[in-house]
Amino acid sequence: MHGIQCSLPLPFPPLLRQKYVALFDYSARTEEDLSFNTGDTLEILDKSPGEWWIAKALSGVSVSKQGYIPANYVAPVESIDAEPWYFPDTKRLDAEKMLVAEGNNQGAFLIRNSETQKGDLALSVLDKGKVKHYKLQKLENGHIYVSKTKPFPTIKELVEYYTTQANGLCVRLGEPCQKTYGLSYNTVDAWEIKRTSIQLQKKLGAGQFGEVYEGLWNGTTYVAVKTLKPGSMDPTDFLREAQIMKKLRHSKLIQLYAVCTTEEPIYIITELMKNGSLLEYLQSHKGATVLGVDCPRKWGVASGMAYLELQNYIHRDLAARNVLVGENNICKVADFGLNVYEAKEGTKFPVKWTAPEGIHENRFTIKSDVWSFGILLYEIMTFGQMPYPGEIHISLRKIIFLVRSVLMMSCPPHCPTVLHNIMMDCWKENEQIRPTFETLQWQLEERAELKSLVPKTS
């Protein structure tokens, strides 16, 4: 029960119960947990010591149910803690560094606690590459203002007003400052958890930048923990993956649970997919026995990629090795943040999954992901066979010849022509006429020819 060993204190009396709003989605990880989505309203029944509270859902997927929730996933309904522009413990100089960082545009802003006057707030705004600061002051009636002639009952109303007009500010407020992640105190946010709450167990794999472990969170929840080997790369680059995962939320994408960034090695904690990579799963006896032509539809990779397409995000390394398999054969796309390669002979480069424009011009778009999806379909229909069979140690020069001559792979044994045609559509040399992922999702879901055909296994 999330580390709570002693008997629980009595719940709050009804009149003292506070309403909270969910800052993030949360999927129950034990029978005692409560699932909720961002924006759901929750009533806190018991603020037990530690990181887990007992709450009742007042709206959303679990309405009227109660259970444990992570305390750092919620904020009081009327609290500005729930606002994306509130950076409470950020100092003036840190605010300036954050606002001028890449990703912020004219008018980017944040509100922080004042360093000089306890209890006061300050507004920091980006204007023409420089940051200007305004003290937010209060009248006797509690109203807040930048200019005394224009007070507001709440901070939220003040922000809403100045997003429509400058009226005395250096610039009209734009988007909230992008949150960045690093090793300093000012990067800690609601996703940060105590390192001691994670127990690393067996190693699942290792790579150039670090290792991946199965871990146990709070003694109750099994998770995957990706670690960064000290000195192997810039921590900011490593944490870009977590940044991206916070923004991209879909049932067919690996879910971020938390991060540990205050000391090395940095941890990125995600849901654990018990059956490993799709490549390993396909190559195993278990993978072969469940594989059918309908699997590309049921496993839903196209659905996850259609979501990325909608969000204008490029994966860059879509392959069976980067799709993970959980219980009940559920598949999810993984590895969003570190997939940047240079097209040079002799470097680590997934040439057999890469579109011509990626090889020749080092140019990647969602349509180059579509090319890779065609290769992924080939992997599925061959039980994890290496693409371009017979070319065991294929060179960059040879793969360039293969894709330039449009000498694509022939139809795998027992693969219906209709599915091979989908692959061929993905491998169009002209990227503009390759299908979208939305189209691919529709083709895999709607084509009746795929539903009754199952390839034989030998």
From TrEMBL:
One of its GO terms (molecular function) is ATP binding. One of its GO terms (cellular component) is endomembrane system. It is found in: Cytoplasm; Endomembrane system. It comes from the Eukaryota. Residues 15-79 form the SH3 domain. It is an enzyme of class 2 (transferase). It holds the Pfam family PK_Tyr_Ser-Thr. Its main location: cytoplasm. InterPro entries: Kinase-like_dom_sf, Non-receptor_tyrosine_kinases, Prot_kinase_dom, Protein_kinase_ATP_BS, Ser-Thr/Tyr_kinase_cat_dom, SH2, SH2_dom_sf, SH3-like_dom_sf. ATP binds at residue 226. Residues 198-450 form the Protein kinase domain. Keywords: ATP-binding, Cytoplasm, Kinase, Lipoprotein, Membrane, Myristate, Nucleotide-binding, Phosphoprotein, SH2 domain, SH3 domain, Transferase, Tyrosine-protein kinase. PROSITE patterns: PROTEIN_KINASE_ATP (PS00107), PROTEIN_KINASE_DOM (PS50011), PROTEIN_KINASE_TYR (PS00109), SH2 (PS50001), SH3 (PS50002). Residues 85-177 form the SH2 domain. It catalyses: L-tyrosyl-[protein] + ATP = O-phospho-L-tyrosyl-[protein] + ADP + H(+). Its EC number is 2.7.10.2. The keyword RNA-binding does not apply. GO terms for biological process: cell development; neuron differentiation; regulation of developmental process. Transmembrane segments: none annotated. Belongs to the protein kinase superfamily. Tyr protein kinase family. This is Tyrosine-protein kinase. The lineage of its organism: Eukaryota, Metazoa, Chordata, Craniata, Vertebrata.
